[in-house]
Design a protein that fits this description.
This protein is mainly α. The protein has 2 domains: about 400 residues, no CATH class; about 100 residues, Tetratricopeptide repeat domain (Serine Threonine Protein Phosphatase 5, Tetratricopeptide repeat, Alpha Horseshoe). It is about 65% helix and about 0% strand. It has 29 helices and no strands. The N and C termini lie far apart (about 70 Å).
Length: about 575
């Protein structure tokens, strides 16, 4: 299939495609080059630090069977990708972020291929078909540097979103080639099905790709449904068989709390999603303000926004009208809503009901619509100038947004300023402030977090640890730590203050019994028996267990070096102690 004449030969010629790929990756390095040393965030601790299944790349059974309660539960291909980058840099973030940027670049190239081939199909205006390569390149470049996508790229754990998008777009790209290149149609259909199945091993939103392919046949290629039933039944059957993988995946997802059993009704969740979907669309056009973390639904009562509801009804009505008239604009509208459908309905992420990463792939339809619209209504050179300004502005905004990710303190300060009613953001900001030695400011934010969400154990723990170090604060510290059932921290506080040593040891033993897989608990227990009981062999065993659970855990390495320098060397003996 010929893509027609293209600007800078961004079409079927290899030099033009290579030039574009180089330009795109250079733009991404400019936008994301400063994020290599940005800290781990939220789920990154679960994805990388606590996820023991990725820490031994040679153990394929473990790598492809991630724990159900982790972010990669039911997503073995995503877990494998984390295992590969963990083998390069361990828990250091640079390799993981470099991989995210590279994967995002590859997905952007797939977006280029899909848009180029769609615009080159018969039935599109000649002014689009003749410039299909140029417009495809512009869409991909503008989308690649869009500020809304920073959360999916910079937040390491959201690699699952990028991998799913890659499978989604490769499914569509191979489908288009199969339908337009009869000599190799069987090969490309196999690639399409394989991409769909692989994407199903990364994230559940790919469940909608068979419907988008069906719309591609019906709207873009003008194939009637009766012909599809007669000639493409086997192809669609193999695509939808990927849902068997997703059924297993969803069981894993529900095990980690993605369910309506978390105190939120389906009606409450749907109410929030009305505003969320409209917000994703707005941010696709105007990405400001961007908020890293929104309040979990369990801490407030959502109310229906009538303006958002009216906008959503109008948008859905417009898409329905386009579909009824078999307008190709309906494909872009359906793309946006179909990809958002799973997490807006049957996969209720109540702890993150609104999340910018979900707009990653849906926003491509908006960007493509804007670029194609400008190409239709403006003079060619005016359109190029306008789109060039948009690309530079978007890239500049992405660079600025990534500055917020430079350290946890700046990111959570930005989040609290934009959403002051978010208890989780206040708690994370408090922890960041405490890590920077600002205990009083940290305590204020812990108290605000507890005012907004009184039952959050981690916030009680943080407030208790700070209060224990203040004159006259021990009683309040014990109250907060007991409220959180924070046995390890309560025991550590009592031990350090020399208060109730028997009680301190009892709390620490209980903490180890309840959380034997937590390296921090083993470290606090080892610290206590070393300093208060002078039981150095037992302390050493506890430090070694902390190091075994979290290789490279600096507090344990320092403690072992103090007790026995040889024990802290890589490859030193790591024997697991029995529970105290």
């Amino acid at each position: 299939m010929s893509a027609g004449k293209t600007f800078l030969t961004f079409g079927d010629r290899l030099p033009g495609r290579a030039l574009f790929a180089g330009l795109l990756f250079a733009a991404l390095l400019w936008c994301y080059g400063g994020t290599a040393s940005a800290p781990l965030l939220l789920d990154d601790e679960i994805t990388l630090v606590r996820n023991r299944s990725i820490q031994q790349l040679g153990d394929w059974a473990a790598v492809l069977s991630p724990p159900a309660d982790g972010t990669t539960g039911g997503r073995p291909l995503a877990n494998l990708s984390f295992a590969l980058t963990y083998a390069v840099s361990g828990v250091q973030p640079w390799a993981h972020r470099l991989a995210n940027v590279c994967l995002h670049g590859i997905v952007s190239l797939l977006a280029f291929g899909v848009v180029r081939r769609v615009l080159a199909l018969p039935g599109f205006p000649d002014r689009l078909r003749d410039r299909a390569g140029e417009l495809g390149a512009v869409v991909a470049l503008l989308w690649a540097v869009h500020p809304l996508l920073t959360q999916s790229v910079t937040y390491i754990s959201q690699r699952t979103e990028v991998l799913m998008a890659g499978g989604y777009l490769l499914t569509l790209y191979a489908f288009l080639r199969a339908e337009t290149e009869p000599a190799r149609s069987d090969v490309w259909r196999f690639v399409s099905v394989a991409a769909c199945w692989l994407g199903s091993l990364c994230k559940e939103a790919i469940a909608t790709v068979p419907f988008v392919v069906l719309l591609g046949h019906w709207l873009l290629l003008r194939v009637d449904l009766r012909t599809l039933w007669r000639e493409r039944l086997g192809y669609y059957a193999t695509l939808t068989l990927s849902w068997t993988i997703l059924a297993v995946s969803l069981n894993k997802v529900y095990e980690r709390g993605v369910t309506f059993d978390a105190g939120v009704s389906p009606l409450q969740y749907a109410t929030v999603q009305v505003s969320a979907v409209v917000e994703y669309l707005r941010l696709s056009f105007w990405p400001h303000p961007l908020i890293f973390d929104h309040s979990p639904l369990v801490v407030f009562q959502p109310r229906l926004s009538l303006p958002h509801a009216l906008v959503l009804i109008a948008l859905l009505g417009g898409v329905g009208w386009c579909l009824a008239r078999r307008s190709r604009w309906g494909f872009a509208g359906a793309w946006f809503f179909l990809i958002l459908a799973p997490t807006s309905s049957v996969i209720p992420v109540v702890n993150a009901a609104v999340a910018e990463n979900r707009a990653y792939l849906p926003s491509l339809a908006v960007v493509a619509g804007v670029v194609v619209g400008l190409a239709l209504v403006l003079n060619r050179w005016v359109a190029r100038l306008t789109i060039g300004v948009l690309v530079v502005s978007a890239a500049w905004a992405t660079v600025g947004r990534n500055l917020d990710y430079a350290d946890a303190l700046s990111l959570w300060q930005d989040t609290v300023e934009k959403e002051p009613g978010n208890p989780r953001a206040h708690g994370q900001l408090a922890f960041a402030l405490y890590s920077h030695g600002q205990s009083e400011a940290a305590l204020r934010h812990y108290r605000e977090a507890l005012r907004l969400d009184p039952d959050r154990a981690a916030h009680h723990t943080g407030a208790g640890v700070i209060l224990a170090a203040q004159p006259g604060g021990l009683a309040d510290a014990q109250r907060h730590l007991a409220e959180a059932e924070a046995n390890a921290n309560l025991g550590s506080v009592l031990g350090r203050l020399g208060k109730d040593l028997a009680g301190a040891e009892r709390h620490l033993r209980e903490a180890v019994r309840l959380a034997p897989g937590d390296p921090g608990v083993w470290f606090l227990y080892g610290e206590f028996v070393e300093q208060r009981r002078s039981d150095l062999p037992e302390a050493r065993r506890a430090y070694l267990e902390a190091l075994r659970l979290r290789p490279g855990f600096e507090p344990a390495l320092l403690a072992l070096a103090r007790l026995e320098p040889a024990a802290a060397r890589p490859g030193g003996p790591l024997t697991s102690p029995s529970l105290p």
